[in-house]
Each structure stands twice: as C-alpha cells, then as structure tokens.
Amino acid sequence: MITIKDVAQKAGVSPSTVSRALSGKIPVEEKTREKVLAAVKELNYQPNALAKGLKEGRTGTIGLIVPNICNPVFPSVSRGVEDVARESGYTVVLCNTDEDVNIEKEYIRKLQKKWVDGIILATSGRQSGHIRELKESGLPVVLLIRKLEDKVDAVVIDNNKAACQAVSYLVRTGHRRIAMVNGDQRLTLYRERFQGYLRALKESDLDFEPSLVLEIPDHGTCYAAMSEFLKTRPVPDAAFVASDPMAVQVMKAVKDAGYRIPGDISVIGFDNLEFSPYLDPPLTTVNQPLYRMGAAAADRIISLIEGKASAPYVRVMDTELIIRNSTRDRR
C-alpha cells in the first residue's frame, strides 16, 4: 500500500508538506503542490479516509439503523436519507435489526467504534435506555418515524391526529361498526394510532367495542388473524388498518370470506406506499411523506454533526388522507 511517506519521498518533500498540499487548507507554494500532485498521480496514492477523518474529527459517515428493510416503508425513507447525505458529501451505512432490540444495541456499539459522525435510528421502540445512553454519549442522533421523547431529535408524524382523521372520515360517510386492525402496541406509533381511533369514536359519540379491535404483533399473520376475526366476531362495516402491508392481507381475507370491498366492508390503510393505488380496489390510505421524512432526518443529523444545531427538536410532518375506491359513502 502506497503511503504518504512514499509520496513525500517521490516528490522530495516532507510528509507534512504532502498533507498540507492535499488538504488545501494551508497555503503551499504552487511549484511544490504540483510536484506533490504529480507524485500522487504516478504512485496512484489513495488517502486513508478513516485516518484523515479521525485527525479532523469527522469521517463523513452516517449510520442508518432500520427495523426491517423488507417493510416497504423503509426503502423510501432510506432513499431520502441517502440522497441528502450524498449531496452533502456523506456516506450512509445501512443496518437492519429485524425488530430485535439486542441487534439494535449491537449495531449502535459497532457504529460508535467505526467512528461514524452520527446515527439516524428508526428504533424497535420496545426499550429506550440504550438510546438515552447514545444521546448522552454526545454522538449526534436523530430518531426517524418512531419517536421516544422530546429530549431526542426526531422526524415523525402525528399518528394520533392522522388516525383520528381517517376514522372520522369513515364516520362521516355513514360507517358505524368500525374495526381497527393494529400492530404491536409496544411500539409508540401503534399506540398513538389506536388512541386516534378511540378519539374519533368518542368525538363521534360512538361506543368503543373491544371486539372490533384486532392487534397483530406479527404482521405476517395478519391474513389468518383477519380470517378468524370475520368468522368469530360481529362483521364490521369498515376496517381501519394501521399499515398498508397489513391492509393488503386484510383485503384478501375480506374477499376470501365472501365480502365485497367496499360494498360490504370499507377498508382504510396507513402509509400510501407505491403499490397502494394498484390494489383491487385501489386503497384509501393515510399518506406519510416517507421520502421527505428521510431527507429531513438527514438534514437534521448533518446540522448536528456540523454544529449548526443544538437544542433537541422534534419535527412533525403533515399527513393527508388519500381517498380511493376501497371506501364508499353509506349515507
């Protein structure tokens, strides 16, 4: 491996002169700089980015930890992070935890040892002590999609408000027996969406019926759980589903049980993923600005890394209910 000493020997200067000539931050005579650049080219010298970064206090690297890259939410988010990071000269290291908090903790330790400049984290959310420790370590951290507390920077949406708006829409269009198919309520976002569901019922003077709520910790079992729900519980006239991937399974279960969408049961999802308009029927859903959320998280982490921000800030981005053909007006 060619070293800076080899370049210095070739150019007939000291290693410190080579370092100054390549950094561009300290003036070097033009003739000397040209000799150094000629030696670099001839020897095909590649500076050690990590060593340079450690010397300067930065490596130009951001860690991005996501809970499940197979979840269609996270490719869009990750693209937003990467695009903004790349434009600002940063490289993104992607880590997938499979919703396992122990893997999440291990990735955090590894990224800290790799000298990343900051971490963007869509946490599994079932524990928070290690995230507080990360924040207290001084390494910049931004939470994405899944918020813990206001003391940690985050980019999120108002899940309670978005869920309330979706369920209120169903009430306004004549639905009265509204089921909710929810994810694992140990995750803050699903708790908040459930609270929005309850809020909409209360504001509409509808009684809450526990039998209309289906909680599914493992999304892969949603089809089977919904099929059993339709066999054993009173059939709803609408279902508010806490994610689009679960809504796909709910719609299939509803159809396979012999019900029409939206003729018998209206369905609303949550995410507005790329496939949502192409389902049969096209899915009414809450739009999360996923790409923009990733971009905003990257903007924020870079501001923290470069000392342009200090006080913790939680950015709440707007959502929108997209009306398609999976719901109908029953009035």
Based on the structure, what is the oligomeric state of the protein chains? single chain
| Helix count from the secondary structure assignment | 12
Helix content: 40-55%
What would you give as the CATH superfamily of the largest domain? Response regulator
**CATH architect. name of the largest domain:** 3-Layer(aba) Sandwich
Question: C-alpha Rg, in Å?
Answer: 26 Å
- Structural domain count: 3
Structural account:
By secondary structure, the protein is an alpha/beta fold. It has a 6-stranded parallel sheet, sandwiched between helices. The protein has a 6-stranded mixed sheet with strand order 7-6-8-9-10-12, sandwiched between helices. It is elongated and about 85 Å long. The chain has helices at 4-11, 15-23, 30-43, 49-56, 73-87, 101-113, 129-136, 159-172, 188-203, 222-232, 244-256, 290-305, and strands at residues 61-66, 91-96, 118-121, 141-144, 154-157, 178-182, 213-215, 238-241, 266-271, 284-287, 314-317, 320-322. The model has no long low-confidence stretch (mean pLDDT 90). It has 12 helices and 12 strands. The protein folds into 3 domains: 4-47, lambda repressor-like DNA-binding domains (434 Repressor (Amino-terminal Domain)); 58-157 and 290-318, 3-Layer(aba) Sandwich (Rossmann fold); 159-288, Response regulator (Rossmann fold, 3-Layer(aba) Sandwich).
Question: What's the short version?
Answer:
This protein is an alpha/beta fold. It has helices spanning 4-11, 15-23, 30-43, 49-56, 73-87, 101-113, 129-136, 159-172, 188-203, 222-232, 244-256, 290-305, and strands spanning 61-66, 91-96, 118-121, 141-144, 154-157, 178-182, 213-215, 238-241, 266-271, 284-287, 314-317, 320-322.
